[in-house]
Amino acid sequence: FQEADHLDQADAAFYLGYMFELGIGRSSSPETAAPFYERASQYEHPLALNALGDLYLNGRGVAQDHAKAFD
Question: Between the CA of residue 30 and those of 1, 12, 15, 41, 69, what are the distances in Å?
Fold first, then answer.
């Protein structure tokens, strides 16, 4: 996934974020997941947009920001 992420693959960025957020293969880290979700969101990836919005809504890994959560 990391190799594909370097090729600007939205799916790869989303799944890396997902793995970091849930702690698949390592400890959970929403802080690390957020930039991957951001990158995938730039390509309008629907799951990444939802996941990033959830992080902003709940202030997990990013500063809580309701405006960004619903953007």
Answer: 18, 17, 13, 16, 15
**pLDDT digit string, tens, across residues 22-50:** 999 889 999 999 999 999 999 999 999 99
- Phi then psi for residue 19, to 5 deg, are -65, -40
Long-range contacts of 15-21 (CB under 8 A, 24+ apart): 17/48, 17/51, 18/47, 18/51, 21/51, 21/55, 21/61
- Judge if pTM exceeds 0.90: no
Gap between the Cα atoms of 63 and 43, Å rounded: 23
Question: What does each C-alpha distance from 10 to 26, 31, 53, 63, 71 come to in angstroms?
Answer: 22, 19, 16, 23, 19
